[in-house]
Amino acid sequence: MSIFGRKDSTDTTASAAAVNPDLAALTGDYSIDPAHSTLGFVARHAMVTNVKGRFLDFSGSLHLDGTDPSASSASIDVKMDSIDTGSADRDGHLKSADFFKTDEFPAMTFRSTSAEALGGDDYRITGDLSILGVTKPLTIDLEFNGAAKDPFGNERVGFEGKAEILRSEWGLTWNAALETGGVLVSDKIKLNFDISAIKNP
């Protein structure tokens, strides 16, 4: 089922009356549960393999509207010092002035500006991604994975998402040329999200 009711543009009154009450019940404010969520990324290394990483320290909130996708929103704050690629040396380099300059820019943020249903369990959210003091639009395709009440009484919703960026657009331009041609680190970065969020009381 889709978290967003789909409106018939020719008959919004009938469409509103036909909204599934289970979907409408999901409307509300949620807090992202970082212990059960992942904010990850993938970069091409030396033109031959993928290096995966994630951020371990982040927080965020969602406002979901089960009947009107345009009324939904999301906000995420990430502590850049929490970057983890499985290599302490590589993580240190990513935190340095060559990349994220975490001493000067300790946070990365995303603030949504619009949301829309794409049909079924799919929807799209667009917002402003800020890195290194540079803010540019980012569009994320999301799949709604469902809703459930956990054994502790928390009402949860889950989403998976993906997006792609060119890191150079945010000023992340460091690279090294390879003798065989090409560069050490790809400009294109794949982003992936696995989000579990708890409904606020």
From TrEMBL:
<dbReference type="InterPro" id="IPR007372">
    <property type="entry name" value="Lipid/polyisoprenoid-bd_YceI"/>
</dbReference>
<protein>
    <submittedName>
        <fullName>Polyisoprenoid-binding protein</fullName>
    </submittedName>
</protein>
<dbReference type="Pfam" id="PF04264">
    <property type="entry name" value="YceI"/>
</dbReference>
<dbReference type="InterPro" id="IPR036761">
    <property type="entry name" value="TTHA0802/YceI-like_sf"/>
</dbReference>
<feature type="domain" description="Lipid/polyisoprenoid-binding YceI-like">
    <location>
        <begin position="29"/>
        <end position="198"/>
    </location>
</feature>
<comment type="similarity">
    <text>Belongs to the UPF0312 family.</text>
</comment>
